[in-house]
Each structure stands twice: as structure tokens, then as C-alpha cells.
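Justification of computing resources. Each target in the renewal requires a structure prediction run like the one illustrated here; the chain below, 105 residues long, is used simply to show the kind of job we budget for.
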Amino acid sequence: MSGFFQSEIVREAIKEMEELQQQIMEDTFKAPMMSSEEKRDHVELMRTFLEKQKNLYFRLSLSDDPEALEMKQRIQDAAEFLGFEGDNINELFSEMENTLDRLDK
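Resulting C-alpha cells:
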């Protein structure tokens, strides 16, 4: 494991993201039966997850660690695979924020 991923801050952030992702996936299946308040909480959970993704991507962008650069490239490749056409992943994050704003309304 590289120096980037040995950082306690990075490891804790990834752990938190994994936990949030698990909760979001579990809640998504319950969405049709959720109250309005529960749906707002679910959107807020997704917003928190997105912020953590943005922070990790920012950290990856600042690193010259080979494993961090590889992960950054995998994120860019995945975004491209999912149909995002652009060189700036921050644009994708912005689009996701806009989607969450619409869901929140």
C-alpha cells in the first residue's frame, strides 16, 4: 500500500465513504416507502457522500503517489464509461449537486 493510502486521514475518509455508500444502497431500496422526511434525510446522506467523494478526488489530484494517480485515472475512466463527456471531474460533481438540489425540491 502506498504512502497516500497509508495516511490515517485518507483511510478514515475511505472507511466513512464505504459506510455511507452501504447506507445509501440499503435506503435506496426502501425509497418508495419512505416518508417525505426520510426522503430528505436520504438526499442529505447522498449530499454528504458526494462531499466526501469530492474531497478524496481533490486529495488524489494533489498527490504524486502512483497509486493515488491510478485511482484518480480509474475515477475518470468510470465517469467516461458512464457517459460523462469532459475532462474536468469537478463538472460531474457539480452536475451531481444540481441533481441532488432538484431531488431536494
